[in-house]
């Protein structure tokens, strides 16, 4: 039985690529809702409804576990999903604030994420937990997901977008950056290049994949196969183009 991955679009592939490394013998199915992306500027109720629909799709395809590989969808829907699907693991993702704070570097921890993630209770509680240990600065990035959805991860427009963003934050000493949206790891190299100095840039893909493995082990539902598993990608957008972009991002 496959493990089902979901994101508002192509972003969750940054989590899936970590999971494939960690669990190479598992089968994976991925559903990206690119037709309705971006989620990060929608009403929370709408994000919740779309997320529940997507999870139903993955369960209909036989998923034995679900990974909500989207920070926005996790903050909007993880509680109601866990209430609905009590007999299967539902793993979510949240901005990797803890590992960033624990680095104890000088300067602020800058969290790049969607407006919905940053304004939801889940993140506010997380921030509350660590606010005395580090200066935490939110950087909402509406509009960034749209570039990545088109496969544009290093073009002039996305570079300009990020240059503008970091210009606004130029008076802040940055100690580390948290990529609190699963689309953003695809522009990590560009962010490094724009910053021009070395700071740790942390995302939650590996941590979430480790949590997935731990859960499957605990429930004794890991694949026993010694062969490499399959990866099947579905998307709500019609046509081949989005699948081509997805494959390029996943295997780049
Ligand atoms: N990839 C999603 C996340 O991790 C959000 C993208 C969107 O706005 O649709 O937050």
From TrEMBL:
What this protein catalyses is: L-glutamate = D-glutamate
Keyword set for this entry?
Answer: Cell shape, Cell wall biogenesis/degradation, Isomerase, Peptidoglycan synthesis
Task: Supply the EC number(s).
Answer: 5.1.1.3
Positions binding substrate in this chain are: 7-8, 39-40, 71-72, 182-183
Report if keyword Isomerase is assigned: yes
Q: Where is the active site?
A: 70, 181
Which molecular function term from Gene Ontology is one that the record holds? Answer: glutamate racemase activity
If you read the UniProt record, what top EC class would you report for this enzyme, in one word? Answer: isomerase
Similarity field: Belongs to the aspartate/glutamate racemases family.
Q: What does this protein do?
A: Provides the (R)-glutamate required for cell wall biosynthesis.
Task: Output this protein's name.
Answer: Glutamate racemase
Tell me the organism.
Clostridium cibarium
Gene behind this chain?
murI
């Amino acid at each position: 039985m496959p493990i089902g991955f979901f994101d508002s679009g192509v972003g969750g592939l940054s989590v899936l690529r970590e999971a494939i490394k960690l669990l190479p013998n598992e089968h994976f199915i991925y559903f990206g809702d690119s037709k309705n992306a971006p989620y990060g500027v929608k009403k929370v109720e709408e994000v919740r409804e779309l997320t529940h629909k997507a999870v139903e799709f993955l369960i209909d395809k036989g998923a034995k576990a679900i990974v909500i590989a989207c920070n926005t969808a996790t903050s909007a829907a993880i509680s109601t999903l866990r209430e609905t699907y009590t007999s299967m693991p539902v793993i979510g993702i949240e901005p990797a604030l803890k590992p960033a704070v624990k680095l104890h570097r000088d300067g602020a921890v800058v969290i790049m994420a969607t407006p919905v993630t940053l304004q939801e209770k889940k993140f506010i509680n997380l921030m509350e937990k660590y606010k005395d240990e580090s200066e935490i600065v939110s950087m909402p990035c509406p509009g960034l997901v749209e570039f990545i959805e088109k496969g544009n991860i290093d073009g002039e427009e996305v570079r300009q977008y990020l240059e503008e963003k970091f210009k606004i934050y130029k008076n802040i000493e940055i100690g580390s950056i948290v990529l609190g949206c699963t689309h953003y790891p695809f522009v990590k190299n560009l962010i490094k290049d724009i910053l021009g100095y070395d700071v740790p840039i942390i995302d939650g893909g590996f941590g979430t994949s480790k949590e997935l493995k731990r859960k499957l082990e605990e429930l004794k539902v890991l694949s026993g196969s010694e062969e490499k598993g399959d990866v099947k990608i579905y998307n709500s957008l019609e046509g081949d183009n989005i699948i081509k972009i997805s494959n390029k991002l996943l295997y780049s």
